[in-house]
Amino acid sequence: MLTFHKDSEYRILFLIAVPKVVVKAAHLLEEEKLPVHYQFFAQGTASSRIMDLLGLGGVDKLVLCALAPEPFAKRILGLMRERLQLKKPNSGVAFTVSLTAGTAGLMRLVDPLKPDGETMQNERMGEMMKEQEYSMIVALVNQGFSEDVMKAANRAGAKGGTVFHCRRTGSEEAARFWGITIQQEREVVMILAPRAEKAGIMEAVNADCGVQSEAQGMVFSLPVDDIAGLAPAGGA
């Protein structure tokens, strides 16, 4: 059974960082008794100068993600900011994204991490009042086109992104119905961008790498609730 939430009580926590930082973060999640978290390999796309500016070091990255109740995820983000020293070079960036639905079993797994109801309601209301400064732009393209995505995104103001590989599992019949043939091997490009720049970056990526191009790209964005490791939008 699926559980839906109008004002989501849950967050997906992401950390994109060099492997040694992700290992420390995984130990932190284990200390805090977070029951499930995942890691996968990725690559950074920014130039060495920009990578140094963002504190992301070289191009080899790990992505750590975990599901948690919103106040717990917010606390973990604060601990990561403090213990992983994400503002320092060669660290990384962490952020949370709202989850609006999930299986009841999955929610029950993390529900014990919730604080009392009154505290949770107060913190969630405060978070809802906070203006979202960043968005996560996601582009799914055919293999070999992630560089084209980043070239388009860079022209529109993006500073860098993270790429990982995946495999399409959709129906061939459904793809033919829409008049497209999509490669099975795909690349996912994730770009953190200030909210004010989101539309321009998405339009640029879609113009160069949209469904009708060789890249056959699909682009969407997700709101970022909170972030650690980057200056606020409009900052240095």
Description:
The protein has 2 domains: 2-129, Alpha-Beta Plaits (2-Layer Sandwich); 134-228, 2-Layer Sandwich (Alpha-Beta Plaits). Helices cover 35% and strands 32% of the residues. Mean pLDDT is 76; it is low at 48-58, 118-122, 124-131 and 232-236. The chain has an 8-stranded antiparallel barrel with strand order 2-4-3-8-9-7-10-5, surrounded by 4 helices. By secondary structure, the chain is α+β, with helices and mostly antiparallel strands. Helix 6 (146-155) packs across helix 8. It contains 8 helices and 10 strands.
Summarize this, please?
Helix content is 35%, strand content 32%. The chain contains eight helices and ten strands. The longest helix is centred in the N-terminal third of the chain and has 14 residues, at 70-83.
